[in-house]
Request: fold
Amino acid sequence: MNVKIVAACEAYSRGDGEKAFPLISEDVQWHIVGDHTIIGLGGLKEVCAEAAAEGKPNFSNTRTIQGKHHVIVEGCDLDRDVHYCDIYTAEAGKITEITSYCLTALEQ
Reply:
């Protein structure tokens, strides 16, 4: 996998979309499992801008797995008990699809 694509995936998972946008396809699809799908780079930028307005997240990537056309990034929010797994698909040097899973701890 292209090191720039891997770095873009890791940046996006940490909440730093600006570093990733140049390597994301205009017609990207971001599937947020159990919630909704965002279509297009413009939609991603809009969601990231809304999130940035709330403050920079305290996300930490804990593991990155690389395949021929996929990058998987696992991590957590250091301020809350939230864990994520983002699966990226890349084709022709661009990220074309993101599938995000997010888990929170069960309340006791």
Q: What stands out?
A: The mean pLDDT is 91.
